[in-house]
Amino acid sequence: MLALLAPCGVQAALTPHAYALVIDSGIALTMNQEYTAVVSLLKAHAAKEPSNPLFMFYLMHVYQVMMIDYETTDFKREFDSCALAAEKGFLKRAASEANNPWINYYLGNIYVTQGAYELRFANYLNFSKNILKGVKQLKKAFEKDTTLYDACIYLGLFQYAKAELFGWVTFWEDDKDVAISLIEEASKKSRYSREVAEEILIGLYGHRGEREKASAAAARVKERFPGNRAVYWLMANIYLRNKQYAAAKTEFDALAPLVNQIPATYQYNYISLDTYRAKVAFELGDYGQCLALCDTVLGRQSGDERITPFKDIVRKLKKKSAERKMQP
Asked: pLDDT tens digits, residue range 142-191?
């Protein structure tokens, strides 16, 4: 594969297009959760072109996806190292490529990604600083090139978040529609971010109660990447929030064999999935299945303190299920 993906020489203006085959392959491997393969691919190219920040940028994203997928911080050092190397590389390029919108896009993307990481751990100050810094760069990118639809995803998300924050003001609802339109456009016209845009749209459609649109977007992603765990998680939780337990069960059941592919070291997803499956089984009146799943969760060992609430939930579910099962 590496022989087929030999990179072109660095152009005067750095754009991703000369490396499209590498990037497209990396995105597909990441969406299929083939992390070892994509890390090897990008590291090999980074070694060939150490002054090119593109490969560090995409490695940063792979480590981010791994941390989210595995619910861990184990790859934080690699994430930070790649983000820093990519940022330095693009800032160095910015001095000589002031009119290159891709430099602004990549810098903005790095800052937004770092902000999103901080949000996971409620570090709101660092989150705000990075997001604002990133949006500033992304706006510059889109002002320089209004066909750079990759930037629309994050600009749309930022606009949606603002509208959500100030939702008590009626006209902000219109901004949500504009934000969704930006991300929808990115899902159709962006060169390297269509998959990300589709996944974001699933979550936003679900948040707005547009379940048919969410399901359609999920079906498109599943068709291309049938083993992608994130899509099943998103749809299952959308159905669960809306008490569509049969539909949620279908998604969770399809997700179970995919979660089993996660290294056993990372128990959080195993435990959280079976807790949700137990809840769904209880709501559907399948108390035997609920009890079996509760026992599975309680039998798992993990030092992760985030597991405690799940075990508390299944203890209550187990008690209720046992009582219901005894009833005539």
From this structure: 999 999 999 999 999 999 988 887 665 555 557 888 999 999 999 999 99
SS3 258: helix
Residue 204, C-beta contacts closer than 8 angstroms, at least 6 positions apart: 160, 180, 183
Return the structure tokens found at 102: 């891709």
The b/e string for 231-255 (b: 16+ C-beta within 10 A; e otherwise) is: bbbbbbbbbbeeebbebbbbbbebb
Q: How many CA atoms lie within 13 A of 63 on its CB side?
A: 24
**Is the domain 12-145 a CATH 1.25.40.10 member?**
yes
pLDDT at 164: 80
What the block records as the tokens of 170 is 């009626």
**C-alpha pair distances (Å), 17 with each of 14, 58, 248, 315:** 9, 14, 40, 54
Q: What is the pTM of this model?
A: 0.90
Give the list of residues 6+ apart from residue 199 with CB closer than 8 angstroms, or none: 221, 230, 231, 234
Spatial separation of the C-alpha atoms in residues 40 and 222, rounded to whole Å: 25
CB-neighbour burial class of residue 327 (10 A; exposed 0-12, middle 13-18, buried 19+): exposed
Residue with tokens 């940063």: 60
Query: What does the mean pLDDT of the chain come to?
Result: 91
For 65, residues 6+ apart whose C-beta sits below 8 A from its C-beta are: 30, 35
Measured over the CA atoms of residue 3, residue 55, residue 18 and residue 194, the dihedral's sign is: positive
C-alpha to C-alpha distance for 307 and 58, rounded to whole angstroms: 31
Q: What is d(CA 251, CA 262) in angstroms, rounded to the nearest whole number? A: 17
Compute the distance between CA of residue 84 and CA of residue 92 in angstroms, rounded to an integer.
12
Domain ranges in the chain are 12-145
Range list of H helices, the chain:
20-31, 35-48, 54-70, 76-96, 101-120, 124-144, 150-165, 172-189, 194-207, 211-224, 229-241, 245-259, 268-283, 287-299, 308-326
Helix extents (H) in 145-210: 150-165, 172-189, 194-207
Q: What single-letter DSSP state applies at residue 8?
A: P
